[in-house]
Amino acid sequence: QVQLVESGGGLVQPGGSLRVSCAASGFTFRTYAMSWYRQAPGKERESVATISTRYNKDYADSVKGRFTISRDNDANTVYLQMNSLKPEDTAVYYCTTMIGLDRYWGQGTQVTVSS
Q1: d(Cα 42, Cα 72) in Å, to the nearest integer?
Q2: Which of 35, 57, 78, 105 sits at 20 to 30 Å (Cα–Cα) from 25?
Q3: DSSP label at 32?
Q4: Residue 36, helix vs strand vs coil
Q5: What is the pLDDT of residue 2?
Q6: Which residues are 50's β-sheet partners?
Q7: How far, in whole angstroms, is CA 93 from its chain's centroid?
Q8: CA of 22: how far to CAs of 14, 27, 42, 73, 114, in Å?
Q9: DSSP-assigned letter for residue 74
Q10: Which of 27, 31, 71, 65 is nearest to 50 (CA)?
C-alpha cells in the first residue's frame, strides 16, 4: 500500500535552515508528482511546493526564494530544504501525492521556528 513517511522536523531559530524528507513506498515513485503542504495551528492546510516527474518546480509565493523542493527517484524520497526560516513557517509539514483520484498523505513532521 502507499506509504509516505516524513522526517527531519524540529525546532530552529529564525533565520535558520532545516531539511525535511519524505520516504515513499507502495507505488512507482518516479512516475508521480510530489508535493509538500503545511498546516499551522488554527489555519487551513496549504500547498508549499510541488515537483513534477520532469523536475519542474512550483512554490507558494510565501516561500519562493527560501525553500527548495527536490526528489531522488533512486531513493524514492522527496525533500524540502527550508532556509531563512521565519516564525510564520511554523507548521506541521506533510508530504503528499495524487494517484488517480486518491490523494495520499504522510503523518506529518512538526517544524517550529522560534527563538
Answers
A1: 33
A2: 57
A3: S
A4: strand
A5: 97
A6: 35, 58
A7: 6
A8: 23, 14, 24, 12, 23
A9: T
A10: 71
Q: Which three cell numbers stand for residue 69?
A: 523542493
Of 89, 110, 88, 86, nearest to 15 (Cα)? 86
Residue with cell 524514492: 76
- What beta strand segments (E) does the chain contain? 3-7, 10-12, 18-25, 34-39, 46-51, 57-59, 67-72, 77-82, 91-99, 102-105, 109-113
pLDDT at 39: 98
> What is the identity of the amino acid at 70?
S
Sign of the CA dihedral running 46, 70, 92, 104: positive
What are the contacts of 104-109 at 24+ separation with CB within 8 A? 104/2, 104/4, 105/4, 106/4, 106/5, 106/6, 106/22, 107/5, 107/6, 108/6, 108/39, 109/6, 109/7, 109/8, 109/9, 109/20
Look at residue 13 in the predicted model and tell me its pLDDT. Answer: 98
